[in-house]
Amino acid sequence: MTIRNSWSGSSIMFLGGVTMSASWWADTTPVGAGLTLGFGALVTIYAAWSLIARDPTKDHWALSVVGLALFIAPWVGLFAGDGAAWTAWICGALIMLVGGGAYLSDESANVTEHARVHNRASYEASIR
Predict the structure, then answer these.
(1) How much is the average pLDDT of 50-62?
(2) What is the predicted pLDDT for the residue at 24?
(3) CA distance 46 to 115
(4) I need a labelling partner for 84 at 20 to 30 A (CA). Which of 72, 74, 101, 107 fits?
């Protein structure tokens, strides 16, 4: 795990916690509370996976997709006039940007190929 992965995963995990807590402190509908709680939990789970994964590239991609879904959720769930909508828009946009940036960074550093080579070498060393 590099410092970049640690920073992106930790910051997204914090944003997931803020999104989950919006159902308790924001004035919203039951649909808004459910969507922010659900998407916040999903973001937190993916962020935790990205922190413990050898190759977090797919997790970062998933986080950017979940961030986009969270950003769109107030319009789809019809709670765009509520307090939780601002949390969904702001946190969703930040999650999407940080997750997308981490994904692009992983792709440019060819993290997937390095993890595959490392896993193959570890496996071959263990069977000898």
Answers:
(1) 86
(2) 86
(3) 19
(4) 101
Helices 57-76 and 30-52, axial angle in degrees (round to 10)? 170
| Residue 126: other Cβ atoms inside 10 A | 7
Q: What is the amino acid identity at position 88?
A: A
Q: What is the pTM of this model?
A: 0.82
Which residue's structure tokens are 């190929």? Answer: 113
pLDDT given for residue 1 in this prediction? 47
How open is the CA angle 95-92-23, to the nearest 5 degrees?
A: 120
Cβ count near 8 (within 10 Å): 25
- Phi first, then psi: what are they for 38, rounded to 5°? -65, -50
Tally the domains of the chain: 1
H or E element, residue 36: helix 30-52
Instruction: Tell me which amino acid residue 122 is.
Output: S
Segment 64-81 mean pLDDT: 92
